[in-house]
Specification:
mainly alpha; 2 domains; elongated
Length: about 475
């Protein structure tokens, strides 16, 4: 019997838990006593012989004890190296998050917020510019009944015969630098026999259109519908890649028509037509359209002066003022928080004739389309949900004012569940789902891809 007890003790020595060791000892002793009794009875053996049979079939006591001990040990003590690896990885991950958060809050976010906020000096300067335009209006309010886009997109189509037409316009314009023509060059242009060869036979049809909204293009509308409700990367990719019509070529063609009218001794008709063309380009509401319109205003001023036409001229200084406010509006509307007092002071100027519409069409890197990077913030991330909501509400109203409701779907937030592996549309949507990394990406997108909309004001001084 002593040998059996020693065997049971050997098994229990490998069990580290005291309570488990006692209970195991009791259970094993009960088990082997019952087994001993059964063997003695069935095989007609004495006690020592039965114990010998039991011990031969019982196995190594140390291994059995080790297995019992392991089976009753928590898993993280069973696999110490795996546990150490997990703990180390967790500590490293938390450290990276905390360090990333610290760097973002100390270095990146202040720069980002500063980049998305206008200085008081800039605000004072743009108010001054808007007051100057109010005193000497450049553009009048216009109706939006007949859109010139379909008509002009067919006439200025960069394909087939249309391509030859565009090449003729651009070649003649480059030859004489039409839109930069000076007072001494008008006679030289009029003497060029190629002037009258440019087809302007359908110019009078332009008068039947009161605006040019190229966002109503069917291809653009389909793509807007496709990316609406998508994430920021999809929307940015779309806006950065859609085709802009030949605004500049149209303006050059309009200048050529005006010079043809001058050659026919009808300068007033040329001036009238060119002003209508400038109005159409400006009515696109795009920043590029408004800046091209400024180039047209400068040509118009020279044309009126050289031909001594009694009509109100827009000075070069005022044209540059309009260009500045076109860019300035973009910066103001995309501020990280639109100050209500500023909105109140600027409200009367938030109209197409003050260049306001560029603010809501030129925002591929603005706060609105970057909302996916700042929505549903993780701990320590920059939370701009309130500012984004206010910004979107303001921009929806602005689109109504500018007759650009077709762009409203782009303001819809990302409604789809973000996953790290999702790929859809033009862009790879996984970036907007990776915590912390997404806001670092947003920061670099803002600072590297977004223009400095206030740069035209940098060298001006508030008086």
């Amino acid at each position: 019997m002593k040998r059996l007890n020693n065997y049971i003790r050997a098994v229990c020595q490998k069990i580290k838990n005291k309570d488990l060791r006692k209970s195991t000892y009791r259970e094993l002793k009960t088990h082997y006593l019952m087994k001993l009794e059964k063997i003695m009875k069935d095989k007609k053996l004495n006690k020592n012989e039965a114990i010998e049979v039991i011990l031969k079939s019982a196995g190594n006591p140390k291994k059995i004890g080790a297995k019992i001990n392991l089976a009753n040990t928590p898993w993280f003590f069973r696999y110490p190296y795996i546990m150490l690896s997990l703990v180390s990885s967790s500590i490293l991950f938390i450290t990276v998050i905390l360090m990333t958060s610290y760097i973002m809050h100390q270095r990146f976010f202040p720069k980002l917020i500063s980049f998305l906020s206008s200085s008081e000096s800039f605000y004072s300067l743009i108010i001054k510019d808007l007051e100057a335009i109010e005193k000497a209006p450049i553009f009048k309010p216009h109706s939006r009944e007949r859109n010139a886009h379909i008509f002009l997109s067919k006439k200025f189509k960069n394909q087939g015969e249309g391509k030859n037409f565009l090449n003729d316009i651009n070649a003649f314009s480059a030859k004489h630098q039409i839109l930069k023509i000076d007072q001494n060059s008008f006679s030289k242009v009029l003497q060029d026999p190629d002037l009258m060869k440019i087809d302007t036979s359908w110019a009078q049809e332009i008068y039947s259109f009161d605006h040019w909204n190229y966002f109503e293009d069917e291809v653009i509308k389909r793509n807007i519908k496709r990316v609406s409700g998508g994430d920021s990367i999809e929307k940015i990719s779309f806006i950065a890649s859609y085709s802009i019509p030949e605004l500049f070529t149209f303006l050059k063609w309009s200048a050529i028509y005006s010079l043809q009218m001058l050659e026919k001794r009808r300068p007033e008709e040329g001036a009238k037509f060119f002003r209508h063309a400038v109005n159409l380009v400006n009515s696109t509401g795009s920043n590029i359209g408004q800046n091209i319109a400024v180039i047209g205003l400068k040509f118009e001023s020279k044309f009126l002066e050289v031909n001594q036409i009694d009509s109100k001229r827009t000075t070069v200084e005022l044209a540059d003022t309009y260009k500045r406010v076109s860019w300035g509006w973009i910066s103001l509307v995309n501020e990280i928080s639109i100050d209500s007092s500023k909105i109140s002071a600027l409200k009367k100027y938030m109209k197409p004739e003050f260049g306001f519409c560029s603010a809501i069409t030129e925002y591929p890197m603005g706060l609105s389309l970057m909302s996916s990077f700042f929505s549903n913030p993780w701990p320590f991330e920059l939370n701009l949900e309130k500012e984004i909501k206010e910004n979107l509400t303001f921009q929806e109203a602005a689109l109504e004012e500018c007759g650009l409701k077709v762009l409203k779907p782009l303001l819809r937030p990302d409604k789809r569940e973000a996953t790290w592996s999702k790929k859809s549309g033009i862009g790879n949507s996984s970036f907007v789902a990776v915590p912390y990394v997404r806001q670092l990406l947003a920061y670099h997108l803002f600072l590297t891809a977004k223009p400095r909309y206030t740069s035209l004001y940098d060298n001006l001084v508030v008086k």
